Structures
1.
Amino acid sequence: MENKKGTIVISGGSRGLGFEIASQFLQQGYTVATFSRGSTEHVTALADDPRFFWKSVDGSDYQALTEFLKEAQQRLGNIVGLVNNAAIGADGVLSTMRTSDIDRALDVNLKAQIYLSKLVSKKLLQNRDGFIINISSIMGVRGLPGVSIYSATKAAMDGMTRSLAKELGRKGIRVNSVSPGYFASDMVKDLSDDILGKIERRTPLGRLGTQSEIAKLVLFLATEGHFITGQNIVIDGGFTC
Amino acid sequence: MLDTQQVKNEVLDSIIQEVATILSEKSLPITQLESATAFSELSLTSLDLAELISNLEARYEVDPFEELVAITSVVTIDDLAAAYTLGLSGQPEGTHDALSEELKAIKNQTR
């Protein structure tokens, strides 16, 4: 299937923020290719939609990613953008964390996104146009106890954003990070009401963000932000200001 | 079936065509492009070379730089063509498949 606007690749688009981003791109007339480890009711519901392609892929498997992108392009047409969204939490005091949990977080949050950026940037170079948006976090710019590995992966991703923006800018390819603060998602579902109340009080706008607000920022950077590259846009209601 | 020299000649033509396009789009002088021409002589940036390689990869559906060849070893147009020839045929240019030749000889003897 070929479409005029093109195909957006989204890692981890089967649930949560990733699925919200996928939905908003679909609403704007793009086709969407996404992958995750497991299926969800969201992707099952879209299984018959010819504008949407989901596959079970381990993002740290370079060969599997290569085949996924080939299949995505064959099914949906020209790839015009990438949203590196997949991530897992890695909570805990570093000295007591299992090395396997550290490795897994590095694989999902960083290695997979680097592999995907390498592969998709080839497609964008062929087009001399396009964008990469890395979904980072305020944990990449602010410290917090218990999230050192998560923070490290997000800060690393922001570093990639800046260097890749300089590397690819001459070919018309934009690279940015979006760093959400606390928003309603699986990542905060286990926080107590007391903690959530404290977060809201520390947030100048007095509430958590929503997935829709973050997805709209991603969509803006992709479709309207033609002179924005190499930036990390924080969307946190003022939490870090 | 194409032999490795034919494959290489076809790849060489593609590379020269792609390089000429890039030079033209950058308004750079298109000098005489030959297999011995070094990329460093052409005022192309490393990003231009990345674009060239992306286009070749899309055309031939093979990435010789993933394992077979080090990108740093590519100096001339000929080096790049040799890399893709290796990626496409699994053999360096001009090599002969000795086993195939031997089997062919045996077949001829039994006829």
2.
Amino acid sequence: MLSELESIVGISEIDHLVKLSRFLQGKKIVHINSTKIGGGVAELLTNILPLKHELGLDATWEIVVGQSDFYKCTKMFHNLLQGVKNQIVPDTLLKVYEQTNEENAQRLYDLLNEADFVFIHDPQPAALIKFFPNRKGKWIWRCHIDISRPNRQVWKFLKQFVIHYDASIFSLVDFARSLPNPQYIIAPSINPLSDKNKDLNKEDIEKVYTEFNIDPSRPVLLQVSRFDRFKDPIGVISAYKLVKKSIPSIQLILAGGSADDDPEGSIVLEETLTAANSDKDIHVLSLPPDANITINALQRAADIVIQKSTKEGFGLTVTESLWKSKPVIGGNTGGIRLQVIDNYNGFLVNTPEGAALRIKQLLSDDDLFKRLKRKGREFVKDNFLITRHVREYLTLLVILEQSRATVVL
Amino acid sequence: MESNILPFEIKDCSILSIATGKHALNTKELFTQLLNIDTDSIYYHFWGKLLRTSFSTPEFNNDFAQWIAEQIHDKALAEKLSVLQPQDFGSIDDLRQELLDIIQNSLEQNTVLMYTNAQEPFYFLKLGMVVFSTTKIVNEPRGFLDAIDELSYGSLYFHFIDARRRTPNHRDDFSNWIALFDGYEELVDMIINIDPFFLPLSKLKEKISKIFNMYFK
């Protein structure tokens, strides 16, 4: 993997990884999240762990498990932290949350108590730290979601756990909260060698046209996302309908799967199908979690990729599409703003009307379309590949190990 | 004397952005935060741009000036802040005082802008850095001819930019080391005269390489 990555990012970037990892040999690193299947965090860890192993690091990945009320509670956290209003998490669910964390703490006690570094991803396992008063290592809370304007009740509840971590990591500085621990800014990444992003041959790409009954001679819009209201699939359909009035040949694919820790996915999928109203040019695809090559092919088959989220921690599908040289029309929010630079590799929009305008503009101006296509891949190479991500994680671990912001090795 | 000069050890660095938890929504708040903000944060907002990828050369060459121009739309203040160069000041605290003087003067003259709120806040960040050895060394000034072309951007940043806050004379590591040798005054002057403030690291590397090539070939 390292040698293949070197051919993409250059020897200097790989050299950094090798040098930094030398200082972390023998250290036990554990990552904890709430699912191994579905969603951006699971995908990131699937990519990062093998690279850490190849660097000789002792890194493992565990998940917290719970009953349906636990996931109901953490989904409410997710929604409320990202700005959903007028909801309160009942005390009964908060108790289930703490109890589930306690049960998982007991199950994982020896591993976590003795680990040198523990990465806790997102709110689901954040309370684990409470049950490790004599922990040996440094604990890091890695927040992947947009908590720039969190619900006060939920944030106050979570903060009682988060303040005990040795450091926290946010994808954007805008998401950082007032905390007593140092807050590092580290953007996520994609693995250019994974099934989701590796180069495909022409046949693999053409296969998706047949499989999903898509006409390759007509323009294709694509949004790949879990069926989640923050991803605004209904807004994408509204934009498509506005475009359809002037470009009747347009086709839309809404492709997504579900995550084990997301109990609302099926409801939002139903809402999306209702909004699609049996339009034969709208293809709503509910894909299995391992449909990585299919998603890769769909992204390569599309003319324009949309990620019209209203809240977005980062938006890995944006990075994936830019890597495939596709212009992206993204919601003007969160991590999408870090990736889509207006009129350079895509457009940022605030409404379905804005998305429709930009789709029409791109489909009618060939020069603009070609110009935006060219820039995306280079931008991802410089900023959002797994090598930069792992380098920053390793840098953070060395800094934490030495307890200084500037470390000379 | 020259036989006692230790070889130049090329180092590399990996950096991280750290949030300070402080932000400003308008010029008045920027002024207030600058009174006490960590000097590391002021340093970051003058030099950090070199380590970030950008599509185009920003109109103004430090983050404070760029934010004032983009978010507060006070071009006059942005121009005044933009002319500041950290290497012209004895310390970051001296630079802080100059920043404060300029902003205060502007606030006194233009009270309307005092409370003009930005759409995007100014977030104060600072740098985390791990420095490590590359095992590459240069034994005499001519050795830089090849070494410069092989430098990573991390090495270039560490020796040419970060050196300015580490060294007593606020100069880069290359010219300081070459100055230990007799007869290289012209080369040292050429290196000192490079103004790194307006160049991305890729162009800075080209420029340094060109100087060594001109001098030795």
